[in-house]
Specification:
The complex is a heterotetramer of chains A (119), B (84), C (158) and D (90). Chain C has 158 residues and is mainly alpha-helical. Helices cover 65% and strands 0% of the residues of chain C. The N and C termini of chain D lie far apart (47 Å). The chains are: A mainly alpha (119), B mainly alpha (84), C mainly alpha (158), D mainly alpha (90).
């Protein structure tokens, strides 16, 4: 149980974001929920790539006594997370621009009122 | 796995969950944006604890500064309070 | 957003060059220390967002147009793809690392294991770091700038 | 209670149960299973790419196409934001 705590935290963060997406009505709060889900996924990738007692995979002045490759954390999930973070901020900017446009057009941020106004 | 690594890991993870819960629950959207910045900063600390300094720098620069700035700009362009 | 008070402007005037130097350092040493094009670009764009907050987006629009920033972003993307295509020409594959192991710029191969920081290593990776850094700086700065200007304008024609 | 709310609660419960049971099917924290590719990258990054930082070598050399797609997405996002706010400028 104790070694599964990071994965439980990841699942909890994804639940929190999913709750905000499904049950909140404000559009900016929905966007914040999507951002929380994305943070949970990033944490999941980094947690998958951790190796016990590992150091960062950078060879410039390693700590003495480091054995490699067995004593280093995995580099591929870190690279994927790096890509995912920049994609996340791009998608966040695009979503918030659309939210600002919707507010100027309909005058509200409530998703149910917007759906009613659309007809 | 040393015991201080374990304690720091669990503590930062729990604080991250608390910050995300606060960001989801608050009615004031500006306060929610600040809580999201705190969540990003704690997440960057967690990445550093898990030996990923590249990702920690990226998360601190993008998550805690730029995305907070974008959310605050969007709140400035729309409405601050979330009404029922 | 309009400009803020004189205290904020003075603090930003002191902090902006430091942020800029740190971000460019992170970009330039991306193949030796933690960092790279994305991270350094995000740091420099954060400094530019600080300028936008302190001085107001109208003042920033007088200094630089967003079309110029957009063309900077295109220059970064084209440079990235051009370096990758040079790998197809001089090496065998797309994204081939044709500079590593040669006697040209950035061509030294470091010794295996824990080494010191030799800047002249890495092959094409420092060039790609610079291209992606220019792209990320311009892209994120133009997003923040245009959104700040649009949020300060009261009337749109939708 | 609306029909939409019931569907949302149902979806949330199903996803929650699914996630809670799938958490315990991941490998334990700190003991990854398949590490052949990562071991190869760590062992050969200094010979093949001349880079000390393994993460940068993965981002720009071993998996360069991922970075190409990411650059495309960033370009598309900037183009989208500029297109949305095109009429705002005077």
């Amino acid at each position: 149980m104790i070694e599964y705590i990071p994965f439980i935290v990841v699942a909890t963060m994804i639940f929190i974001g999913l709750y905000a997406v499904l049950f909140r009505r404000n559009l900016i709060k929905i966007v914040i929920g999507i951002s929380i889900i994305e943070s949970g996924v990033n944490l999941f990738l980094i947690t998958l790539g951790y190796r016990e007692d590992g150091v960062a995979p950078i060879f410039t002045s390693l700590p003495p006594g480091t054995t490699y490759p067995a004593g280093m954390v995995l580099p591929v999930p870190q690279a994927l997370t790096l890509t995912s973070i920049v994609i996340g901020v791009a998608v966040l900017a695009l979503m918030l621009s659309l939210v600002m446009h919707i507010y100027r057009k309909y005058g509200t941020l409530d998703v149910r009122k917007i759906r009613r106004l659309k007809e | 796995m040393g015991v201080e690594f374990f304690i720091a890991n669990i503590l930062v993870l729990i604080l991250t969950v608390v910050a995300s819960l606060v960001a989801m629950l608050l009615r004031d959207l500006l306060a929610a944006a600040v809580a999201m910045a705190a969540m990003s900063l704690l997440l960057s600390l967690e990445f550093f604890i898990l030996q990923a300094p590249d990702v920690a720098i990226a998360e601190a620069g993008v998550g805690a500064c730029l995305s907070t700035a974008i959310v605050i700009i969007a709140i400035n362009g729309t409405k601050r309070m979330e009404d029922e | 957003m309009s400009g803020m008070s004189k205290i904020v402007k003075t603090a930003v005037n002191i902090l902006f060059p430091l942020t800029m130097i740190f971000g460019l350092y992170v970009i330039a040493h991306g193949h030796l220390t933690p960092g790279g094009g994305f991270q350094g670009g995000a740091i420099v764009a954060s400094g530019c967002a600080m300028i936008v907050v302190a001085y107001g987006s109208k003042w920033v629009f007088k200094q630089i147009k967003e079309k110029r920033l957009s063309s900077f972003e295109s220059i970064g993307a084209v440079g990235f793809i051009a370096v990758a295509l040079l790998g197809l020409v001089f090496s065998t594959v797309f994204f081939g690392n044709f500079l590593a192991g040669s006697s040209l710029l950035f061509g030294t191969i470091p010794a295996t294991g824990s080494t010191g920081a030799d800047f002249n290593t890495g092959g094409v990776l420092p060039l790609m770091n610079f291209a992606v850094g220019v792209k990320v700086i311009a892209g994120l700065f133009v997003i923040v700038l245009v959104m700040a200007y649009a949020s300060s304008v009261k009337e749109w024609d939708t | 209670m609306e029909k939409r709310t019931i569907v949302a609660v149902l979806v949330f419960a199903i996803v929650a149960v699914f996630f809670f049971f799938s958490v315990f099917m991941v490998h334990p924290f700190g003991k990854p299973g398949q590490v052949n590719m990562d071991d190869h990258i760590i062992a050969n990054t200094q010979n093949e790419t001349g880079t000390n930082n393994a993460v940068t070598s993965v981002v720009f050399d071993y998996r360069g196409f991922d970075t190409l797609g990411e650059a495309t997405i960033l370009f598309a996002a900037v183009a989208g934001v500029l297109m949305i706010f095109r009429r705002v400028k005077q």
